[in-house]
Design brief:
Elements (H helix, E strand, L loop, with lengths): L2 E2 L3 E4 L6 E6 L3 E2 L13 E2 L5 H13 L9 E5 L4 E3 L2 E8 L4 E5 L6 H13 L6 H7 L24 E4 L5 E8 L9 E9 L5 E4 L9 E9 L2 E8 L7 E2 L4 E10 L7 E2 L2 E9 L2 E2 L3 E5 L2
Parallel strand pairs: 3-15, 6-9, 10-13, 17-18
Antiparallel strand pairs: 1-4, 1-8, 2-3, 5-6, 7-8, 8-9, 11-12, 12-17, 13-16, 14-15, 14-19, 19-20, 19-21
Bound molecules: zinc ion.
Length: 286
């Protein structure tokens, strides 16, 4: 359930520079079922986008639940200490409470991770959900592999290929305003094995931090780029003709940062294993 000390490191650098954001591996401890509320936690009303994120998590998981029954708290900073461990968020089953570090409150993949716990009513990470049905929508940061054991290649007749043997596409969409006036830009990156052979991708990066899905946005006030580093090999394995996807989301804002984008025209692309999609353009309106 909680994200531990893991690291989304980013650097906002100079205005015209490219912000590089990496999600590195996390260490986990998701067994804090009766975890206490941190002393500096403050309750908050979830923004309207949480209803959309909840519906997305319901749809991928096949479970339904009452978002209104979840109580939300946030703690200042990017991590907080819970029973001696640095965490970014957790779901408490007895109170149906989600506690988030302030810095991840707008990070859809992180929020949906905790929503998925709340919908499943389980503090553990069933592989079929976190790394299966809801894989394109929930962040794992290395912690989703701990409960269902090590992944094994499901067949032996695969070939090892570089990322450029796959087809990468990016779909950019400026979403309608949420009911509270917020607006979000969604970038879905998809990667397809167009061949009839199963493929294990030899992604760049060291052995434990291969690069998987990424994005690059370049606009009037600079650029932002980043992506996922995957710790579970299943993300690098493709059945014949399989498509994998990942969703990046950015709130339209007056500042450009890890999860925010300013209005203007952008050149957009996605990548997988640093193999890029074709460029597309989109205009972000307030
Ligand atoms: Zn978790």
């Amino acid at each position: 359930m909680p994200f531990l000390d893991g690291s989304k490191s980013g650097s906002s650098a100079a205005r015209a520079a490219i912000l590089l954001v990496m999600i590195a591996l996390g260490i986990s401890a998701c067994d804090l079922i009766t975890a206490p509320l941190p002393p500096n936690a403050q309750p908050f009303t979830p923004p309207a986008v949480y209803a959309r994120w909840w519906a997305m998590t319901e749809a991928c998981s096949g479970r339904s639940g009452d978002l209104g029954a979840v109580r939300w708290y946030r703690v200042p900073g990017s991590r907080f200490t819970l029973r001696g461990q640095a965490v970014a968020g957790y779901w408490n089953s007895s109170a149906n409470r989600i506690v988030l570090a302030e810095d991840i409150v707008e990070q859809g993949d992180m929020v949906r991770h905790e929503m998925l716990h709340a919908l499943l009513r389980r503090p553990v990470h069933p592989r079929s959900q976190f790394l299966g049905l809801c894989a394109p929508l929930v962040s794992c940061q290395g912690i989703c592999t701990r409960d269902d054991g090590t992944w094994h290649v499901p067949r032996s007749d695969y070939v090892v290929l570089p990322p450029d043997s796959l087809n990468v596409a990016a779909s950019a969409e400026l979403l309608p305003h949420e009911s509270d006036g917020e607006r979000w830009f969604a970038l879905e990156v998809s990667v397809r094995n167009a061949g009839a052979h199963a493929v294990l991708v030899a992604a760049p990066g060291d052995r434990v931090t291969p690069h998987t899905f990424g994005y690059d946005l370049r606009g009037p006030s600079g650029g932002i780029g980043g992506g996922e580093i995957e710790s579970d090999s299943s993300t690098l394995f493709f059945q014949p003709f399989e498509i994998k996807k990942w969703l990046f989301e950015f709130r339209v804002s007056s500042d450009l940062s890890e999860y925010r984008i300013t209005p203007g025209s952008y050149l957009v692309r996605g990548d997988y294993g640093r193999h890029r999609s074709a460029d597309t353009t989109i205009t972000i309106s307030p």
